Amino acid sequence: MDQARGHSPHELWGLVARQAWARLRRRLRAGPSYRWRYSGRTPERVLIAPPDLRIADPQVARDIYHGQFLLAGQLVETRGQSPFRMPITDLAWQDALHSFRWLRHMRAAQSDLASANARALVEEWMSLHGKRISGVPWEPGTTSRRVIAWLQHSSVVLQGAELPFYRQFLKMLAVQMRYLRTNAREMPDGEDRLRARIALAYCALSLPAPATAVKAASRNLAQELERQILADGGHVSRNPRAIMELLTDLLPLRQTYTNQAEQPPQALIDAVERMLPALRFFRHRDGSIARFNGMGITQHDSVAAILRYDDTGGAPLLHAPHSGYERLALGATTVIADTAAPPPADLSHFAHAGCLSFELSSGRHQFVVNSGIDNYGDDSYRPLARTTAAHSTITLNDTSQARFSLSSQWSDLIGTPLIGGPRKVECRRDDGAGAQRFTASHNGYVSRFGLIHERALSLSEEGAVLEGVDRVVRPDGSASTAIGNDAVAVRFHIHPDIDIFRDPEGRHILAGEATDTWLFTVEGIVPVVEESIFFAGLGGPRRSRQIVLYTTASEHPEIRWQLRKTHAINGNS
């Protein structure tokens, strides 16, 4: 596999132009005049409430009734006020509020009180935000999630509703449907654009619509699926989290087609059948999803709910050439590595500078990890979590492979795309008898320092030995001559649940439990243990540690290290 990509200044200016044009067009289509743009017949009824795979908790419904909204990791107490009037500036909280996915908790409560509260909140939203299309409530991605949630939980919202509310709810659904239909093709590339097509397919199936509307929604959905879901089941953003989120919407949609006696588009069937094994590809044995390119905290119940639909069986794939990842798996050991260039600029807002990083798990323990991101935490930590130093790979001259920070004016317009990074990544798989291995290289440091990074990983002895070779050399394969400008740091971030000990010989032992420990050794370099941060903890960022190998490319152009499974702990921490 040879992947060449890069984000030149021309690409960034192109992204600026596209985003500015899309914003202008959305503004022209919004405002008080939307009534004539998005008005039309009001559907007579909701034909079917599609299922929702997301985990629901009746206690959350009780908390919401008492004015406590824990959304996107932030708790807001309304104290009798409308949540839609709260002066909260956190955009993630606002998006979660206006997306209405929390309606599932009302449905789980199965009570008249929860239903009345759901109806009151929907009515409040329609009163405050239904008459003017503007701001966060009407961002197309937010609108798509809200439409899906309103349809999925229409039974609880409409339970006991009087006719005027029933008609207004259906009218508002139709307005949002027409708004999405008008704006979907102009949405930024990526997950939200696909979700808009998913929402429109839900509408065509759940509301009375002519056969031509169902066909059109299915055709547009199929085109977007074929474009965004890669041949190996990955998403074009290279973010494992996108696979999980999209499957949570696509699986119920497939079922809704069946429930309505409609044939699902073949592209939908094919995409789901590719994505389920892809999700398993990124899954460690403890159920966690590997932390690459925007993946953070794993909601284990959510993953389990999705994988109940996976009837493919057998071991996960070992090679994802289109997504750009490799998996080594023998015995109880799993290694997952990032072996591709960053995604295109439009899709890189969550991408990390972690090319050639890897994670290692053994049994139910994760040992070597990437720092991941805190999905619900302070956004100010995101740039740090995306840097190369937050990944288990090499940094050169204390410099990240790419950067993400832009001025606030740029960020407000185009977000936080990855700037720079590897333009060419080559990967070669070379499995043999009793061993799985690959060799990959990237040129992310060539423009600045004239050096490439090549990494070879080999898993053998039934998963008991992981051998690594890191080479930092010039593009022609010769050793560096840039003395003083070729400082190398090889980082191995250790999961916070793992203890680090030294044995009597001074070697480092990683201990998960008495029966699952690993010995770390390296040739010619003294490892250093330093503090680190694991951003993807269930309770938020956690302190952790990392093993770092400091050297120079001129002194050690080739660094050989090994992780060997052992069963004894005999040393000091």
From TrEMBL:
- One short Pfam name that applies is Hepar_II_III_C
Heparinase II/III-like C-terminal domain residues: 314-562
The record's subcellular location field reads:
Cell envelope
The protein's predominant localisation is other
Which protein is depicted?
Heparinase II/III family protein
Q: Which organism is it from?
A: Nitratireductor kimnyeongensis
